[in-house]
Amino acid sequence: MAATPTTPESVKQITYLAAALKAPRIIEAATRLADQARDAGWTHEDYLAAVLEREVSARNASGAELRIKAAGFAARKTIEDFDWDAQPATRQQVGALASGGFLTEARNVVLLGPPGTGKTHLATALGIVAARHGHRVLFATATDWVTRLTDAHRQGQLAGELARLRRYGLIIVDEVGYLPIEQDAANLFFQLVSSRYEHASLILTSNLPFSSWGGVFGDQAVAAAMIDRIVHHADVLTLKGASYRLRGRGIDSLPSIIATTGETSN
User: How far apart, in whole angstroms, are the C-alpha atoms of residue 207 and residue 9?
Assistant: First the structure.
């Protein structure tokens, strides 16, 4: 016996109930799937599951988009549009990280390498992956993070700020080492790292090896303690090669950066 067609009264009832549940997309999915369900002989349970599945998928996509917009990325970059020909050695590592497992394990990711090798691109791409996995994300440069922490400290709100930041599944610190950080500010940054240790993930990018971080933070002891906590549970990826920004411009490389003096080496 053929299934009874949907009546105007039942459509009104579904519309009312969908609005009451604050799930307006249900009415669209229910209407669109009704004929398919009747023609294919779905059970009531199959039909209900299909409608709810589309609502959940739509909510997840909408939530992910909101989280991506709120993260503060400088630009939207994805793993799919990364130039793997320039960094083939890191492709497998990044692919593993894209599963999102490092976030549930509160592991960190450190991207090291010269300017223009794709560190910020990959950090952003992994941040977008995190947002799509349901995690709240914040992105800023190291200088901007220091400014934020310094302002909170001056207002007597550092503890509250660190507590708020712990609610984010991922914090991205871009460009560690591009500018030196004063010792007092370095101590604040250390508190950020410590507050997330074994609790939630960090992604950091730097053009300098760890051995040069003492010069960046103005204190070898603080830098050593910070690195110890960062790398204890971390994946460290080293990117190599010339800057993609220099391709086709007849420049093979940029001068290396000495954090302590700001001079260039030969």
Answer: 65
DSSP letter assigned to residue 42: -
User: How many domains, in total, are found in the chain?
Assistant: 2
User: Is 255 part of a structural domain of the chain?
Assistant: no
**253 in Cβ contact with 116 (< 8 Å):** no
**Do 155 and 58 sit in the same domain of this protein?**
no
Mutual angle of helices 25-40 and 8-20, in 10-degree steps: 140
Report CA-CA distances (Å) from 180 to 59, 109, 208, 217.
43, 21, 12, 6
> Rounded to two decimals, what is the model's pTM?
0.76
Write b or e for each residue in 9-43: b if 16 or more Cβ atoms lie within 10 A of its Cβ, otherwise e.
eeeeebeeebeeeebebbbebbeebbeebeeeebe
Q: What is the pLDDT along the chain (266 residues), one digit of tens a residue?
A: 344 556 677 778 877 877 877 777 787 788 888 888 888 889 888 888 888 888 777 777 788 889 999 999 999 999 999 999 999 999 999 999 999 999 999 999 999 999 999 999 999 999 999 999 999 999 999 999 999 999 999 999 999 999 999 999 999 999 999 999 999 999 999 999 999 999 999 999 999 999 999 999 998 999 999 999 999 999 999 999 877 655 655 555 555 544 443 443 33
Report the alpha-carbon distance of residue 15 to residue 49 in Å, rounded: 18
Tell me if 266 is assigned to some domain: no
